[in-house]
């Protein structure tokens, strides 16, 4: 708070004290505002550095509004007043008690005495403003910390529910301990990769293209002919990133075992678009496999298709369609891009 950015209030309705004080301060570049009455002064106190008031101005005015303002000051504030009294007399005690943080000057005052008192009051007010800024910063940090703790509690709860669902579903869809171990470990790694993307952004969003690269990049050849990713930049909230990341992992695992990634010449193309519709933004993802073994509809529903249909439909409110074309599996996902706090379902 610079001297030329704030105002010193002056209340001296009787005589020339107000004019003289304003002129003295003005010569030194200290902005001064002469108030016509106590009510006008109280109205300006919040944005001022200090106030110079004559004793008779307070004695002749209704001081209740001023007393209330002083009483309800925030904890960091102790507004500085300068009280001008008559020479040789003692200041009225109940006035100094009312003002609290008060410097008493006898009139007639020397210009240097007034200037020193005002500058001291302005420095004190500046320190108080610095304390205010520090307290606000601490409060904001406390609020951010509380928010992060609540967010962490929510995420841990959702993650544990996700792991529990993965455990049960993997157990139901595997036929040996080794198969269970490998499938479950792969799914946990995929979940961890999505969490890594989220925590890099303080658990805010995860880029869709990075989620796809985490799953598919190591299947590509050096010329990037097996894997094609095409779409705009899309940041997924945590409530969408986790189930979508799991869905991508299941599609990749299925392609590696039975589809386009199970043979050297197979290819996968993933394209996505974002559209603004009346109900909000929607993300459309198309997964298309070509060049793999001939595709036949599955005889039983595995965990991957269960996750795609059940989790994405219920948790993300998505529309899912899977086509078992003989030339290669294709999957279309239409997902509303809304930030909701949802508990995983399996």
- End-to-end distance, in Å? 59 Å
How large a portion of the residues is in β-strands, by DSSP E?
A: 15-25%
User: What is the 3D form?
Assistant: rod-shaped
Structural class, by secondary structure, is alpha/beta
Q: Main sheet, how many strands, which sense, barrel? A: 5 strands, parallel
Tally of helical runs? 10
Counted beta strands: 12
SSE string, helix = H, strand = E? EHEHEHHEHEHHEHEEHEEHEE
* Strand order, sheet with most strands: 2-1-3-4-5
Radius of gyration computed on alpha carbons: 36 Å
Low-confidence runs = 340-346
* Helix fraction bin: 40-55%
Mean pLDDT across every amino acid position:
83
Please describe the topology of this protein:
Elements lengths: L7 E4 L5 H11 L4 E3 L3 H7 L5 E5 H5 L4 H8 L9 E6 L6 H7 L2 E6 L3 H63 L3 H24 L4 E3 H9 L10 E4 L4 E3 H20 L9 E11 L2 E11 L12 H13 L3 E7 L2 E9 L10
Helix pairs in contact: 6-7, 7-8, 7-9, 8-9, 9-10
Care to describe what's here?
The structure is a single chain. With 346 residues, the chain is an alpha/beta fold. The chain has helices at residues 17-27, 38-44, 55-59, 64-71, 93-99, 111-173, 177-200, 208-216, 238-257, 303-315, and strands at 8-11, 32-34, 50-54, 81-86, 102-107, 205-207, 227-230, 235-237, 267-277, 280-290, 319-325, 328-336. It has ten helices and twelve strands. Strand 4, helix 5 and strand 5 form a beta-alpha-beta unit. Helix 6 runs antiparallel to helix 7 (177-200) and helix 9 runs antiparallel to helix 10.
